[in-house]
Design goal:
four-stranded antiparallel beta sheet, Rossmann fold, six-stranded mixed beta sheet, single chain, 239 residues, 10 strands, alpha/beta, globular, 28% strand
């Protein structure tokens, strides 16, 4: 019997609390979930349900108060910040609602920066021409081939998000975590961005975990996970 593939990401019994003065504020209260290779998963829930906090834990940007996060079956418990950063840079891409592009850099430089972070200075310097060409090709794929030298302030909201998508995908991650990626866009621009993300996801067979309030968008994914008050309340297979 063929062994099933390890989940790209998994959470087991994950809790997260924050201290405010003498008070302990629980945000996640025991979350269990897994994301399979090439799977598109939508994460739904009201504001304050814990969706963004869970995304930060799965993306190794933060650590759980209790419980365990695994990447391809390997536990991250006890990993140093440097070790988590290495795993994150190799396997995980991020797309956020507010883009998080560096305003002083051009679109091309913003995407190339993601490549620089995945290599030593010496290694990057030796491959800089190849890295630049890859970044140009990635920006061309997302429709920004004629906007390479434009800074974020010179790009529309949809163009900024396309640049952020290119930055997330340039390192060929195993999974992309997208936190309300169209929440700051008008409906027509949002539709174009989603079509782009899904076409690239299909072409590259990347797993996607998509935080959204849009139920119609969620129904275009393979599975829907509902959260409320820091716990998973329902999981629905769509496809």
């Amino acid at each position: 019997m063929t062994k099933p593939p390890e989940p790209v990401l998994s959470a087991t019994g994950v809790h997260k609390s924050y201290a405010i003065g003498d008070r302990k504020i629980p945000v996640l209260r025991g979350v269990d979930l897994s994301i399979q290779p090439s799977e598109k998963v939508a994460l739904l829930g009201a504001s304050g349900a814990g969706k963004s906090t869970l995304l930060h834990l799965l993306g190794l940007l933060d650590t759980p108060t209790e419980g365990e996060v695994k990447v391809f079956g390997k536990s991250t418990i006890g990993s140093s910040p440097a070790e988590r950063a290495k795993v994150r840079n190799v396997h995980i891409g991020f797309v956020f609602q507010f883009y998080h592009l560096i305003p002083e850099l051009t679109a091309l430089q913003n995407v190339m920066l993601a490549q620089m972070m995945n290599a030593s200075v010496l290694s990057y310097w030796g491959q800089r021409k190849k890295c630049k060409q890859q970044a140009v090709e990635m920006l061309d794929q997302v429709g920004l081939g004629d906007r390479l030298q434009h800074r974020p302030s010179e790009l529309s909201g949809g163009e900024r998000q396309r640049c952020a998508i290119a930055r997330a995908l340039i390192a060929e991650p195993s999974v992309v975590l997208a936190d309300e990626p169209t929440g700051n866009l008008d409906s027509q621009t949002a539709e174009g961005v989603i079509e782009l993300m899904f076409s690239i996801q299909l072409e590259r067979q990347i797993a996607f975990l998509l935080v959204t309030h849009d139920e119609a968008l969620a129904l275009r994914c393979d599975r829907i996970i509902q959260m409320k008050d820091g716990v998973v309340t329902e999981q629905q297979q769509v496809r």
